[in-house]
Structure formats: structure tokens, C-alpha cells
Recover the amino acids of this structure.
């Protein structure tokens, strides 16, 4: 078991944004977290990482209560893109090297093995030839991959990614999916927030839906496809019913009214 949440509520200050979240992620699973804007997906990720308030429930990481986990570096985090701001003046290699800090300590010095790991991480994400490039000059998709490489350099057992495909065009989504697929083969567990499943869909073992602060679905991609079909069907037939009602109202409403009027007129002495 890599991540286990039991009836967890997370929020900011006293306010719970995500409530009663129960979720288990096992070794080697690739779990996507989907849902509308503002539903609480990032709050769930941050909750797992201990970056916001846990108001109730429990979080167990690698079998121990989260606050007792010493090796935080076992959790790799790829935040949303805007956290790598345009004002950062650093090369891809320098950014990726900061991923070693949790392992060597803030005062530690990079050794040859650390440098090798940095180079290998850049290679895994297909950016070996951009090591010396300033990150602000890279494309959005390339910046995403730099952030993934930074997380990888920490040799995490689980990668928690917030919108890795945001702002990445279709072609580069496939490049990214290939990168993630390589990681999957290396046994990395992943929890990925995404707006659209897109190119990642083929890698997933599970899909979790968060809606208005609750986990409303948790199942395999096949179960998700069935559930989605049902939701669409329900939505369509509901829509259809409403359309029928509207038609009937249009067909009969005004007529009924005029009948009534006529009858009223006719009823007049
Ligand atoms: N640091 C914060 N302090 C206070 N409230 C916050 C904070 N971060 C998020 N929220 C609130 O929590 C709610 C859920 O936000 P969250 O970022 O978890 O949603 P999300 O599903 O990831 O959305 P999106 O798809 O837009 O990224 C929102 O109402 C948001 O305003």
C-alpha cells in the first residue's frame, strides 16, 4: 500500500474543501484524479503531501501515519505549471538538481552520483540535449518535463502530479505519455490530476472523480467508461424529457390559454 486515506477531510484554515475522502493507491498503480474546476483535486494532492490542513480522518503513506514518515523524498511532487515562473533564471539541469536536495540535505553538495542521476532524469524525459538551456526559454510542455525530471531526480517511489498535460498540445501529450509509460515500467506509482484523460488514458489502472469536495467515483477505466455512458445517457434523457416538456408547453400552453380566453369570452353574458 503506497497511499491510504480514510475518511480524510482537507482544507485551508478551518474550512474543509474536500470531505470524507477514502482512497487506496497500491504499488505500481497509475491513478488519475479528474473533476471540474475547483472541485478539490489539488486539495486532495496537497492533503496527501501534508501541504494543507488535515481536518479529520487519516493519511497513511507506505504503511505509516503520514506525520511519522521520515523519508519525505519517497514522495515526488510535480506541481502545477505556473509554479515554475518565467522569472526563474536557471538551466534545466540546475532545476533538476534541486530534486536531489531532499536526499542530500540543503547543505549537502552534489556528488558524481547525484550528477549522474540528474543527467539520467533529464534523459528519461527526453531533454538530455537541453540540460544547459534556461528553463524560461523552454516550451510549456518541456517545462512540464523538467519538473517531472526534478521529481524523478529525488528517486521517489510515488509521483504525485498536478495537471502534467495542462497547456501541452496533443503531440507533446503523447511524448509525455511515453515518458510516463517508461516510468511505469520502472515501477513508479503515480497519482495524476488531470482535466482530460487524453493521451494518459491508456496508462491508467484507476480513475477517481472528485466533484464539489467529494470523491464521487473510484473504479477501473472500464468501469469509468460504463459510468460515464450512464451519466451521459441520464443527462441526455433528462435533457430529452425537458425538451419534450418544452415542446408540449409551446404546443399546448398558449393554445390552452387562448381556449380559456375564448371560453371566458364565450362565458361572458
Ligand atoms: N491555498 C488556499 N487557500 C484557501 N482556499 C483554497 C486554497 N487553494 C484552493 N482553495 C479553494 O479550494 C477549492 C478547491 O480548489 P482546488 O485547487 O483543490 O480545486 P481543483 O479541483 O484542483 O481545481 P482546478 O481544476 O481549477 O485546478 C476552491 O474553492 C479554492 O478556492
Amino acid at each position: 500500500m503506497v497511499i491510504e486515506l480514510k475518511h480524510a477531510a482537507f482544507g485551508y484554515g478551518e474550512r474543509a474543501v474536500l470531505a470524507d475522502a477514502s482512497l487506496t493507491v497500491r504499488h505500481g498503480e497509475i491513478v488519475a484524479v479528474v473533476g471540474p474546476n475547483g472541485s478539490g483535486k489539488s486539495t486532495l494532492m496537497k492533503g496527501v503531501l501534508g501541504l494543507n490542513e488535515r481536518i479529520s480522518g487519516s493519511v497513511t503513506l507506505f504503511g505509516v501515519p503520514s506525520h511519522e514518515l521520515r523519508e519525505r523524498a519517497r514522495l515526488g511532487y510535480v506541481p502545477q505549471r505556473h509554479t515554475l515562473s518565467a522569472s526563474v533564471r536557471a538551466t534545466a539541469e540546475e532545476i533538476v538538481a534541486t530534486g536531489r536536495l531532499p536526499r542530500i540535505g540543503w547543505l549537502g553538495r552534489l556528488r558524481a552520483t547525484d550528477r549522474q542521476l540528474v543527467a539520467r532524469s533529464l534523459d528519461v524525459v527526453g531533454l538530455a540535449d537541453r540540460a544547459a538551456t534556461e528553463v524560461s526559454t523552454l516550451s510549456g510542455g518541456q517545462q512540464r518535463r523538467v519538473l517531472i525530471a526534478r521529481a524523478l531526480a529525488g528517486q521517489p517511489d510515488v509521483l504525485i502530479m498536478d495537471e502534467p498535460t495542462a497547456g501541452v498540445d496533443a503531440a507533446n501529450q503523447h511524448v509525455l505519455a511515453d515518458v510516463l509509460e517508461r516510468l511505469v515500467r520502472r515501477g513508479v506509482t503515480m497519482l495524476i490530476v488531470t482535466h482530460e484523460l487524453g493521451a494518459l488514458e491508456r496508462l491508467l489502472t484507476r480513475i477517481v472523480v472528485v466533484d464539489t469536495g467529494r470523491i464521487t467515483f473510484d473504479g477501473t477505466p472500464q468501469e469509468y467508461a460504463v459510468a460515464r455512458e450512464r451519466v451521459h445517457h441520464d443527462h441526455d434523457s433528462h435533457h430529452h424529457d425537458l425538451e419534450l416538456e418544452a415542446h408540449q408547453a409551446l404546443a399546448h400552453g398558449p393554445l390552452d390559454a387562448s381556449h380559456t380566453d375564448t371560453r371566458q369570452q364565450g362565458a361572458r353574458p
